[in-house]
Protein 1
Amino acid sequence: MVSRIPTHHAPAPTHPVPTGRGSDPAPAGAAAASPRPVVKRTARAIVLDGDQLVLIKRTKPGEAPYWITPGGGVEPEDAGVVAALHREVAEELGGSVAGVVPAFVDTVPHVTEDGRDGVKVQHFFVCRLVSMDPARRHGPEVEDPNGEYEIVRLPFTPEALRSVNVVPGRLREYLAGNVEGVRALLAPDLA
């Protein structure tokens, strides 16, 4: 026997309704906000070398150090996000990587230099280090560093990841909570 479910219309809420865009609620009865435009995309490498994670310790004058994954903006001349990743690894590590697999995406508000408001989408890929020669580093991070870009190796463990200020923080927590899963992304049977 099929029961008929009575239909009724819920009254309009009298409290603010979250829109999913930060913590600002939309007014009651407001239509869903249109998506924010993507105004910048970056490619970032979660570089594994055995049981270690290769990072860049970033030290700026007058600021506490922080650790970042190699990477940067997707440029118009890049064939795509993965091509940008390979270019950035060559520039910042003097290196090359293999087994590039998407692992994490971080979307943050961003305003371009010309004032356009939108979001920056950071694409993080896990990959294996094939080679690295810091003497071959080039690009703005080396030529005009505004502080230091030091290549460092960190044990790829939750404890080590939480012991330093890896940014963005959401990446640090994702990696620390998923060490085994991130390693499994490079398993030979995944290809």
Protein 2
Amino acid sequence: MEFSFVVLKILVSAAIIAGISWYAGKNPSLAGFLIALPIISILAISFSYAQYRDMEKINQFVGSIVVSIPLSLLF
């Protein structure tokens, strides 16, 4: 079960990245908008909840994401 869940996470993430990269050739503006969305954060939160079902850890994880967003704007 654990290994298959890891493989599923890899496949979903790779499909999203590959799909948006492919779409960049068709419509660069929309692809840029899609890649700027917090898709990775949403996926990570969803996968973490599905795997652990521990809301306390998920809340800490989301809190660290919220703190990191303003810091990432400095780069």
Protein 3
Amino acid sequence: MKAVELHEKESWSKAIKRAEGEKVKDDPKLLKKTIKKKIIKKKKSEKVWKERIKSVNKSMAERQQKRTENIQARIDAKKNKKKNKRRK
């Protein structure tokens, strides 16, 4: 009884909205298609984000490696300079 009344009320509200020129989005095929599109878009976005994180981490590691090499080169240069001063 209550379900029938609810269904009838819903039908009337949809009919009124259609009469007013408003679009009623109740087609199951289109709703499924929309949901599928959203899921695919979300997965694609997630994949792009993972790639971005991966590239950022890679660039950070490269920069850190370059930094340590430069620091080591500076230390070696100081040692060589001290050795050369001792020889003279």
